[in-house]
Design goal:
The chain is α/β, with parallel strands linked by helices and 279 residues long. It contains 9 helices and 11 strands. 34% of the residues lie in helices and 22% in strands. It binds fe (ii) ion (FE2).
Length: 279
């Protein structure tokens, strides 16, 4: 595994350590899954992905207070992946929030919106579920409030905002765990230089920044009003100390406001994890 270390001063009496892992993309299929799922498994399976995840979990158990996984733990919806999810996520040292691939039926075969997500969600539930919340998850660890929000289709909803404000009422420092990073200029520029043909997959790009995108990607990633309201709130709430995020499969650190850092962590499938020490 490849460990990145970040330290953040948020005024704690005792340090709290988070191992941030994201985008493990495990790919399993079993006798209950159809031939196309087995095809996907064949295409995307690598024993390294699982090996790295178990290395991350072992490291977190030995050195950290919690492992925060920000989604794409699995590559697609399958019975085998759902069974595996229950096994992995039953470990109460792991905190999880879903990414886009958690709901992907056949990876890139459909327009993915909330209806698509909820159909997959219902199917996962019918197969016994992940055993943990997928859309919204919170946990207090050593006096730090970890809030996970599924923003994996580039949008927030007003119920997210309502609930996040309720979390802030608790008065504890908040670590926000989301799959898709928020727009930030240096991250946008870095992504454009690195992959000029690609959209940046950042939440909250304005029209100017969506201009180089294909029509498909601009429609997919254009923020709506609830999303803009949520981003404004995240940027203005002083209790939110840090954003942990993934989705991009590379690591990047920047600030979305002068006081709010955003840590993008590279692919867990590649062995990458970030140890965040909060002091
Ligand atoms: Fe993703």
């Amino acid at each position: 595994m490849e460990l990145i270390r970040s330290t953040l001063k948020i005024g704690l009496e005792k340090p709290v350590k988070i191992l941030h892992v994201t985008d493990s993309h495990l790919s399993f299929a079993d006798e209950f899954d159809d031939a196309r799922k087995h095809e996907l498994k064949k295409r995307h399976f690598s024993s390294d992905k699982e090996k790295y995840l178990y290395e991350h979990i072992a490291y977190a158990k030995e050195h950290c207070d919690v492992l925060v996984h920000t989604g794409d733990l699995f590559d697609f919806v399958s019975h085998a992946n759902t069974v595996k999810a229950r096994e992995i996520l039953s470990d109460d040292r792991i905190f999880f929030i879903a990414g886009n691939h958690e709901y992907s039926q056949y990876v890139g075969e459909a327009w993915e919106d909330n209806a698509y997500r909820m159909n997959s969600y219902m199917e996962i539930e019918r197969m016994g579920g992940f055993g943990v919340p997928m859309l919204w998850n919170t946990r207090t660890v050593c006096g730090v409030n970890i809030v996970g929000i599924d923003n994996s289709y580039y949008l927030f909803e007003d119920w997210h905002l309502h609930r996040l404000k309720k979390e802030a009422e608790k008065g504890l420092p908040i670590i926000l765990a989301i799959h898709d990073p928020l727009f930030e200029q240096s991250l946008y520029d870095f992504h454009r230089r690195r992959l000029p043909q690609e959209p940046t997959y950042l939440v909250g790009c304005d029209e100017e920044h969506l201009l180089p995108y294909s029509e498909f990607r601009a429609v997919q990633q254009r923020p709506d009003e609830p999303t803009k309201r949520m981003i404004d709130y995240i940027k203005s709430e002083p209790l939110i100390k840090c954003i942990l995020t993934g989705h991009l499969h590379f690591s990047f650190e920047s600030n979305v406001t002068p006081t709010l850092p955003q840590f993008v962590t590279g692919g867990g499938y590649d062995g990458v994890a970030r140890e965040v020490t909060l002091v």
